Amino acid sequence: MSAPGRAGRRRERAAARLRALARGVWGQQVRRIAPVVVPVLLAVADAVLVNGLKLALELGVSVVAATALLLRRRFPLLVFLVTLPGLYIGYIWFAPMIGLYTLAARRPGRVRLGICAVLLIAAHFLPYPISDFEPTHYRENTLVLIDACVTAAAPIAMGLLVRTRGELAQRVEDLTRSLVREDRLLADRVKTTERARLAREMHDVVAHQVSLISLQAGAVQVSTEDEAARAGARTIRELSVRTLEELRHMVGVLRADGGGGTAGAQGLAPQPDLEELPRLIEMSALDVTYEGGVVAGATGTKTVERAAFRTVQEALTNVRKHAPGAQVRVRVGPEGSGEAESLRVEIRNGPPDETAMAPALPGGGHGLVGLRERAQSLGGTLEARPTSDGGFVVRAVFPYGGTGAAAAGAG
């Protein structure tokens, strides 16, 4: 590598070290202390350069005025008044100008700034001692007065400019937050409108069709004399009524503000839990063996029990569609103890019966995806895979006790 290239690499590394140092703890300390200390050092240097080390009174007053700048942010008016003797006796400029700038930036007020400006002009214009003042030196006095006016006006203008800039930055930040809040409210309104549209579509399409199914099943139940057909019609009618109740709940949630808060969900149909699993299995018309080892509502939350119910429901639906005539085993039981307790749900089916007719039911392939997302949102896991004997197994584990249950309830 050439010498210029190596020098460039060294400069880059040095710049990187400086940036890292500036972002570190020392850099933060320097950024916090420098605005307070640097003006004091400048004022002390001004006092020493103007008065030297021999004039005790002038140097002492000037150093006191410079040191007072350490408190200028807490007591800007008092510090400015303390710096005026330094200007009048010690002929220093930095300390009173910095004090007046701080006063304009932190305690603006027309009357206050006007009086302070007149005091600074007087301290600058009148000599020390006052007996040295020569009223007849018009040209010299005019130049000193102009210089004093500029000395007073400059820090006031700078302080007001900095304060105005800070206020504008705050206004811009407030406006930005307002715009973000308005965008969020607009998005919520769009979501609410879309929920209402979906609710109307679901009610108009699904509720109408299911109602017709329920009416037809009721007519068959009344008119037929075949006991098996009557039992089947009764089951179809019960399923239709249950579907309409759950559809009513979903439509109510979609119409509720905020996506189904407690206020919007009042009066809606209760959601299924583990107590309704036997009834679900009974009405599934499948060869199911149920092994349940959980007392519903004993230690877990309704959210977890509802997720377990939906998992079994979707798995049985998939068996009905893809493995007609297969034997199914449903196991629901706890695992672990205390805060580590979890609810294990397993649905395992064997190979389909070749002689059974598969129903032509539509499917979008989203059922297992939705179950996995539901399990993950509750802090659990879901596994779905084929088995070696040609069947399929769906296994889910949900947190069901202690911290896990509390988290699931919050979810």
Automatic annotation (TrEMBL):
Membrane-spanning ranges: 33-57, 77-104, 111-130, 142-162
The enzyme's E.C. designation: 2.7.13.3
Domain Signal transduction histidine kinase subgroup 3 dimerisation and phosphoacceptor: 194-257
GO cellular component, one term: membrane
CDD domains from the UniProt entry: HATPase_UhpB-NarQ-NarX-like
Top EC class, one word: transferase
Keywords from the named record: ATP-binding, Kinase, Membrane, Nucleotide-binding, Phosphoprotein, Transferase, Transmembrane, Transmembrane helix, Two-component regulatory system
GO molecular function: ATP binding; phosphorelay sensor kinase activity; protein dimerization activity
Keyword tRNA processing recorded: no
Domain Histidine kinase/HSP90-like ATPase, first and last residues per copy: 305-400
Catalytically driven reaction(s): ATP + protein L-histidine = ADP + protein N-phospho-L-histidine
Protein name per its UniProtKB record: histidine kinase
Native organism: Streptomyces gilvosporeus
